[in-house]
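Shipment paperwork, digital attachment
Item: protein structure file
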Amino acid sequence: MTAVRPERDDGRSSPQPRHEASFDLSAPDVHVWHASLLLADSRLAQLMDSLCPEERARAERFAVEDARVRYIAAHGILRAILSRYVNERPDRLTFTAGPHGKPSLTGPRGAAESVRFNLAHSDDSALIAVARDREVGVDVERIRGDVESLGIAERFFAPGEFERLRHVPSDDANRLFFTLWTSKEAYVKARGTGLSLGLDRFEVELGPDATVGRIRRLDEGREPEDCLIRILSLGPDHAGAVAAEGQDWHVIYRLW
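Attachment content:
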């Protein structure tokens, strides 16, 4: 494992390598782990052994081999990472699901109770966000050119987001669409509501440099959301974002 850390407060900076992997997680930090799901068979077998019986059964239900391998890798890596934060073996971690399916750690009061996390993966890349005492959500998508971005935005996004997409140059519209999409997904995952909160019921307001987003709820009389979104720099082929409660946190990148 190699750890990386960019300058704080800039979700789109290029990560700089660190020589040690620290699992110390202070309250102002959100760790975002970027992992490849392309693993050697021997490593994949180790990760499979760390899964609980329910996870193994779900893995075996995938009809497509690539999907099965990605599921095993993503959930095995999640266990390997979380185990270091709570000082427990990966195969001994236990999880529970919220009303809309968002998982959380269970166990004795202490580290497991305070650690929050979220997993997202697209193709062979996975992101895992870890925070302490604040809810967190993360999303990643491969940027594709075959998506009817304006049609999807008109149907599912807030009116202001659709109008913004309409008025940007066509070369920039596709990336902006995926930036907004991953930001909105990260926000609903942080809230733990899933898509029960319609994507058209809130607007992501990006800052001038498009590295930070804030949430404006469109429900009448709603107070401003105490939540911040940071846009992640994942190269030309992927878009990603992490959302967390509060305004006073920073992203620390790590590579697994």
